[in-house]
Amino acid sequence: MNYDSNILKLKRLGIDTQREYFVYMRSDCHICISEGFEALTRVEVTVKGKTIIATLNVLHSELLQHGEASLSESAWRASGAKEGDTIAFAHLQPVHSMSYVRSKMYGNKLNDESCQSIISDIAEGKYSNIELAAFVTACAGKNLDAIEIAGLTKAMVAVGKKMDWGKDIVVDKHCVGGLPGNRTTPIVVSIIAAAGLTIPKTSSRAITSPAGTADTMETMTPVNLSLAEIKKVVKQEGGCIVWGGAVELSPADDVLIKIEKALNIDSEGQMIASVLSKKVAAGSSHVIIDIPVGKTAKVRSESDAKHLEFYFHRVAQEIGLNIKVLITDGSQPVGRGIGPSLEALDVLAVFRQINNRPLDLEERAILIAGELLEMADEVTSGNGHAMAKRLLQSGIAWKKFQAICEAQGGFREPVLGNLQHEVLARNSGQVFEIDNRRLAKVAKLSGAPSRPGAGVLMHCKIGQRMIAGEPMFTLYAETSGELNYAKDYLEKEFNEIIKLS
Amino acid sequence: MNYDSNILKLKRLGIDTQREYFVYMRSDCHICISEGFEALTRVEVTVKGKTIIATLNVLHSELLQHGEASLSESAWRASGAKEGDTIAFAHLQPVHSMSYVRSKMYGNKLNDESCQSIISDIAEGKYSNIELAAFVTACAGKNLDAIEIAGLTKAMVAVGKKMDWGKDIVVDKHCVGGLPGNRTTPIVVSIIAAAGLTIPKTSSRAITSPAGTADTMETMTPVNLSLAEIKKVVKQEGGCIVWGGAVELSPADDVLIKIEKALNIDSEGQMIASVLSKKVAAGSSHVIIDIPVGKTAKVRSESDAKHLEFYFHRVAQEIGLNIKVLITDGSQPVGRGIGPSLEALDVLAVFRQINNRPLDLEERAILIAGELLEMADEVTSGNGHAMAKRLLQSGIAWKKFQAICEAQGGFREPVLGNLQHEVLARNSGQVFEIDNRRLAKVAKLSGAPSRPGAGVLMHCKIGQRMIAGEPMFTLYAETSGELNYAKDYLEKEFNEIIKLS
C-alpha cells in the first residue's frame, strides 16, 4: 500500500474518550473518500513509526482544516504524538483472533492457542469496546470450563510483566469480593510481612463495589507504584499493598475489567483467570482465596462456593500454584465503614487496637494470616492463628503497616466527606437481615469509590435490638448531587435494606 | 433534582459518532465536578423538553468555552437542538432491563416481559454500544429457544410501526442469505404483483454480505421510502421493494443489526426474530423462507437447515404466521454478479430475457414465486411454477417491475465501478468447488456494498472446464485503495477461492 498519499498533519483537539482510541478526520478528507473510511471504521494510524488502531469519528465542521487530523487524548498519549506531527492511515487488517471469539459465541471451546491470540490482541489495543463486550459476554456466567480458564490465565500472564523474588515461598491472599467492608488485606499483609515472609500484594480498584482494596489504601498512602518502586518496597519491608493496574501485571485483564464494570457483571471464569494470573505474575507460590457466602454476597450459596472452590483448585493445579480456599460468612458487611476512607478508618482502628474497633474485621484478618503462616510452614499446623493474633495485638503489625506506607510514599489519615445524613430506624425491633447489595448501592450512589470520602457508616449488626429513632447508618458524601441521589434511592428501598423483626 | 444549576448552552462541533449519542463537556465544567460525571459516564440530557441518553466525552481544550456543551451529530438531530439552545443534565437512572440481559448471560431464560422491556429500551436508545454487544452476544449461536425467539419477535413488532392492507392474504418471501448473488426478490415481487396479489416487500441492507436486496435495488430505484410512500406504491402496483430500515418497522432490530455487523456475526435467534417481526409488521399472512445450504453458505448442512426450519415453524406458529420453508442448493453463487450493481445487472438480464441471462437465478425466482402463488390459493397445487414462468417469460413481470420502480421514484440503470481487474486461471482443469465466503470477502474488500459499483463478476460455475489464462472472474472497484486491498487478499487466498480438479 502506498502511504504517501495517506498522510495528514496532527492537530490536538483534547477529546477524552478514555481507553478506546479515536481518530478525527474531516468527512470531505481525500483519505476518507479514497480509502472508503466512514464513521466508526477501525483504521491503522501511524505516527513517527508507531502504529495504533483507532476508531474513526468524522467531522462535519471546521474544527480541522483540510490536511489535518486529530487523535483522542488516550491515542495522542499512546502514539507519543506532538502538534504538527504527520499521521499516516491504512486499512485495518481484520483482527484474526475475533474469529475465535465468534466461535466461542457459537458454543465451541477456547484452547491455549486461541486464548493467547485473543489476550495478546486485547493487550495491544486491537479490540473495539463492542468486540471486548462480546468477548466478556461469551465468557460470562458458567460459560468457561477449567481448561479454558487455565488457558486464559496463562495467556494473561504471558502478555504482562512478571516479578521474581528469588525465593521458594512467596505468599498472597485474595477475596473474591461482594462483601462490603471486608478490608482484611492491609492487616493480613502487615502481619505476614512482620513475620518475615514475602507478600507482594497487588490489589484492584472497585469493579462493581463501592471500594476496592486499592481505593481504600489510597486514602492512606500512594498506591500507583511502578514495578521498580514495588520491588524496592517489598525488598525493604517484605510486603506492599499497591494497585495492580498501574504495573501492567495483566494489561489485558485491566481492559476487560473496565468493560465488566460498564456491564455491571463479574464473570466467574474471567475472575478466576484475573485473580490467578496476577498471583503468578506477582511471583507468588502460596495463596489463600477467601470466598464469603451469603444471600446478598457475590457468592450466594454453599454449593456455589464449593463450585468456585473446585474451579480455583483445578485451574491452580493446571498452572502450578499452591492454593487454599476459605469459605467464610458473607451475611452482612464486615466492620462499620463502606467506602474507601470509611473502610480505612476500620483498618486503622484494628491496627491501633482502640476499644470499639470492629472485632469481626480483626478476627477475619487473623484467621487468614494464621492460615498463610501455616501454609508457608512458618508455624506448625494449628498454631498460625495464635501467632497472627500476637503479631497484631502487640502492635508489631501496626509498626510494619506504617513502615510499608512510608516506603510507598508516606502515611496519611483518611478524610471523610463533609456532607452527612443520618438514617434512623422507623420502628423498633431486632435486626434479622442486612442487604449487602442494596447497601453497596447506597454507598455507590453517595459517590464511592470515585469520591474516597463517600459511603455508608453502619451503626448496627444482625441480632442487634434497635429502638425507633436510633441511627441505623450514616451517609457520607462529597457532593450534594450524589447525597440526594443516595437519599432518593433510600426512600424507595428503605424497608429492603435493613430488616427488623 | 434541581436542574437550574445543571444547564449549559449548546455549541455545535459537528462530530459524527454514528448511532451512539455523545455529549461533550469541559473537564473543568462545574456540572462534571458537582455531579461526578467522568468520560464515558452515561447521562440524561434534556434539550427543549426532549430527553435523550448520551455518553460523555470530556474536553481538555478550548473547543468549548465555560458554560458550553456540545452533542454529536446524531444526538444533535435526535434532540432537535439549535446553536445556543440550553441543555440540562441529570444522572442516568440505571437501565433496568440490563438486569434481564445479565440474567440471560448467566444462563437464565428470557420471557415475554423481559423481551418487551429490553427491546423497548433499545428502541428508545437507552443502551450503549457495549450493552448492545452484550445483548447480541448473549443471544448468539443457539442460545435462544423458540419461546424466547417468539418473545423477541413480538417485542420487536410492538415497538415498531405496523402496516395493514385490509386483505386476508398478503404474501412475502425471505432468504436467510449467505449465498452471494441470490437476488430473486425483485423478480419474485414483480411476478406476484403481476398476478394481482399484494406483496409489500421490505428488504435489508447487507449485514455481513457484499450486498443486501435493498443495496441492489438502490442501484435501480430509490428504496428509502416513508411509510406513506410505501402504502401508495403497494396500493397502486400491488408490490414494492424498499429498504425496511427507513420505515422503522422494527427500530430495535435495526440497531441490533449494526452491532452484529461490527461483530461480523449473524445470530440464529435474532435473525428469526428480525425476519418474522418485519413480516408481521409489514402486514403479511403467508411467507416463503428460502434457506440455501452449502459448505460455504450461511447454513452449512442439511441438518442445520432442518434445525432452522423447525425453529422458523415453531416461532411462526407462536405468533400466528403461515410460512413455508424451502431448502435450496447453496454450493455456489447464484447468477454472475456479487455486489449491488453487478447483481442488479443479473436481475435486469432475467427480466429482459436476454440470451445469456443467468438461468439459475431465473429458475430460483420462478420456484419461489410458484410456491407463493400456490400458498395464496391463486392456482391449484402443482400449477404455480408454470404460471410464474409464464408471467416472467411473457414480459409481464418486467413491465410490473418498471412500474414499481416508477412508483418508487423512477428507474435507472445500475453503474459499475470504473476500476477493473481480471483474475485468470493459473492452471487448466474442471471447477469442482467455489468458496462463497472467500468470494464474498473479495467483493467486500473491493468496496461492496458501500460502493455500489464494486464487487465480483463470475465467469465460471461448478463443473465448467477452465484453460490456464482464461478469466475466472473480474474485480470491480470505485477506488484504487479498495481494489489493491482485494488484490492483496486474492494473492494470499488464490487457491482456496475456486478449486480446479
Main β-sheet of chain A: number of strands, strand sense, barrel status?
A: 6 strands, mixed, barrel
Query: Which chain pair has the greatest contact?
Result: A-B, 59 and 60 residues
> Based on DSSP secondary structure assignment, what is the total number of beta strands of chain A?
19
Report how far apart the termini of chain A are.
74 Å
What structural category arises from helix and sheet content of chain A? alpha/beta
Number of domains of chain A: 3
Query: In the CATH hierarchy, what is the architecture of the largest domain in chain A at level 2?
Result: 3-Layer(aba) Sandwich
Radius of gyration of chain A: 25 Å
Q: Outline of chain A, from the CA principal axes?
A: globular
Counting DSSP H or I runs of 4 or more residues, the number of helices of chain A is 18
Query: What is the assigned CATH homologous superfamily of the largest domain in chain A?
Result: Nucleoside phosphorylase/phosphoribosyltransferase catalytic domain
At CATH level 3, the topology of the largest domain in chain A is: Pyrimidine Nucleoside Phosphorylase, Chain A, domain 2
Strand order of the largest sheet of chain A: 1-6-3-5-4-7
Oligomer: homodimer
